[in-house]
Amino acid sequence: MAKNSELVAVALLLVAASLSVALLYSAGRGDGDGDGLIGGMPWTILPFSPMDALPLLPRSVAMAALRKLRGVADIFPVFVGAASARPGAVSARLEWKGACFYENEAWLEFHNDSGSEYGGGTLHIKTTKAHSWTCIDLYVFATPYRVTWDYYFAGREHTLDFKEWESEAEYEYVKRKGVSIFLMPSGTIGTLRALWDVFPLFTNTRWGENANIAFLKKHMSATFEERPKPWVSELNVDDIHSGDFLVLSKIRGRWGGFETLEKWVTGAYAGHTAVCLRDSEGKLWVGESGHENEQGEDIIAILPWEEWWDFEVTKDDSNPQIALLPLHPDLRAKFNETAAWNYAKIMDGKPYGYHNMIFSWIDTIKDNYPPPLDAHVVASVMTMWGKLQPDYAANIWEEALNKRLGTKGLDLPEIIVESEKRGVTFDKLLTISEQDKWVYTDGQSASCVAYVLMMYKEAGLFDPISSSIEVTEFTIKDAYTLNFFENNMTRLPVWCNKDDSVKLPFCQIKGSPCYICTYCVKFSSL
C-alpha cells in the first residue's frame, strides 16, 4: 500500500504540473497579443506549485509525496549572507536566490525613531520572480543578541523593523557585520514536513524506533540485518576484562532522537560509550559518563556490572543496541588497572561533560558540517538556545568558548564580539582544540567518550605519545576505530555472536537489528 500511495502521489503531482502548464500555455497564447504575460506575470510561471497543492490532496497521498521529496535537513536554515547599511550602494546590496522568489536583495538602514541611545534599524528585503503564485519564502534573521523570523508571499519590497538595538555592543556589531539572513530552503510546507520527520525520532514508541532506523538508512546509508534470537546474549562475565569498551546506540525516546541527530552530524554509528573495570577482588564494574541518578542528573558513575546490565536489559526504554569491543591482548597487557581505578574514583559523581560535547565534532571551518549546516547556522542556533535555556547555553558552549579566548564570564554575544575584535572569526573559534587539562567551574569535563579515552590515557594505552594526545577532541567514531581492540575473531569468547548470521570482529550483546554494522566499524591505526 505504501508503494502504491507513493506512485499515486507522484502521478497526481505530475498531472497537476502538466495541467498548470497546459492551462497557462493556452491562456498565454490565446489572446494573440504575443506578450506572453498573465496579469503582468510571465506565462511560464505556474499559478501554483504542485507542492503548494499538497494540503488539498488526501493526507495519505500528500504524506507519501512529501516523504519522497523532502528530507530532515529541510528543518535547518541556510545562511544567505548578512545585510549591511550601504546607503546608495545598490550594487553592493546582498543578493540571493530563494526557494520561492528567485531574485532577492536586502539592505539595512539605521534610524532612531525610538529616540533611544543607540537607535534601531530597518531591514529592507525585496523579493521578485516567484516560481509560482502560491509559494512562500520563510526566513530567520539574527544578530548575536536576537533572533526573529518572517515569511514573504508577495513579490515586492518588505521591511523588518528593529525598534532599538539592545545595547551598544549590538549596535556596533550590526554596524560592522550586519544582520544575518537565513533561508528555510523548503518553504513553509517543506519545513513543517521536515519537522514531522524529526518529531517521531524523540517518541518512545515503535513508531519512533522505526523513524530513527529510517533516518539512519536514508541519511547515513546505515544497513540493518535482523539478528536471530536471543537478542540478549547469554554472556559469561568471566570473559570480560578491564578496559573492554562498551558501545551503545539508542534508537527510540528522548536519547534515541538526540543520538540519531548526533550520529548524523558526527558520522559515528553509535551514540554512547562506557568501559569495563575489574577491582582487586575480580568484581566487574562499569564506568560511565552519562548515568542518570535518582535526581534526574546526568553524572559520571561506577556501577556494578549486574546493576548496569540489568538496567540496560530490563529498564532502558531507549532499546539500546550494545556492542562489546574487547581490548587486543597486547593492549590488555599494557592496561594499568591501578591508574585506571584512580582516575575513575576521582571522576565518580562529577557532572557529565557537556562542556566539551560538541567541540570534539568541529575540527575544521567547513568540512565537519553535513549540508546545510555551517558555523553561521550553529551560531544562530546557539543564540536561540541561549535565549530559551540560558543555563544550558552556559554549560554546553559558553564556558568552553571562554576557555578558547582566555576570558571568563562572557555570554555568547560578548564572545562573538570579543572574538571579532581579535580578528578570529566565529567559525575559526569553534575549531580551536579542546585541552584535556582544562578545568571548568564544575571540574574536569568528560563526555561519555572522553571519559573512556581519558581512562585509557591514564592507564598507559596511548604511551609513548600520550602527551601529544587530547582525548577530549575524539568523537565516538574516533574511539571505536582506534587500533586498540581485538581484530582476531578466533580469540573472541565462544558466546560472542554465536548464533548470528553476520560474524563481526566484536560482540553485539544486545539488540535486534545488527546496528553497528560491518562496514561501519573499520579498525585502523591511530
TrEMBL record:
Residues 1-22 form the signal peptide. Keywords: Signal. This is Uncharacterized protein. It comes from Zizania palustris (Northern wild rice). The lineage of its organism: Eukaryota, Viridiplantae, Streptophyta, Embryophyta, Tracheophyta.
